[in-house]
Amino acid sequence: MADTLIHSHALVEAPDNIGDGSRVWAFCHILPGATIGRDCNICDHVFIENDVVVGDRVTVKCGVQLWDGLRVESDVFIGPNATFTNDPFPRSKVYPTEFPQTQLRQGASIGANATILPGLTIGQHAMVAAGAVVTRDVPAYALVAGNPARIVRYLNQATTQEQDHVD
What DSSP letter does each residue of 20-48 carry, written as one string? Predict the structure, then answer.
């Protein structure tokens, strides 16, 4: 846990599951089964459930909840108050035996207040616009917007790759 910062007002139930160089800010709650990679920034008021895997260099802005079944690859940006769902047929006190897996691929960006339905894949370097409601998979390099989210255009792969982290 060298160089890892966990704010005194954060509740991290398994600090050894937080990668080196990551920062967890105030009023976060990270359950013990979650895994957070290196150099991540987990902002205020974030909740992360047990069956969640977050890659390296991921930013999770304020007010986000990451529910069981979410897989976040490296270099992903999740904007403020983005909403992820993990139960396609929610009912009070009725839980699925297994939650569908939602995947955010390498370099994807999720805009503020976007909603992602369960079991979907957001492709590599794809971008979900603020407020979009994503009801189906988003292809790599696609920019989607609206409700339901539709492809607006494709992003320039060369420009997007220039922004990738280089070790």
Answer: TT-EE-TT-EE-TT-EE-TT-EE-TT-EE
Q: DSSP assignment, residue 4?
A: -
Q: Which residue has the tokens 């769902």?
A: 85
Residue 22 CB contacts under 8 Å (≥ 6 apart), including other chains: 4, 5, 36, 37, 38, 39, 40, 41, 42
Phi, psi of 159 (to 5 degrees): -65, -45
- Contact yes or no for 100/70 (Cβ under 8 A): no
Q: Which of 27, 108, 113, 102 is nearest to 66 (CA)?
A: 102
Mean pLDDT throughout 13-40?
98
Residue 133: both structure tokens together? 């409601």
pTM above the 0.85 mark? Answer: yes
Please state whether beta strands 142-145 and 150-154 pair in parallel, antiparallel, or not at all (unpaired). antiparallel
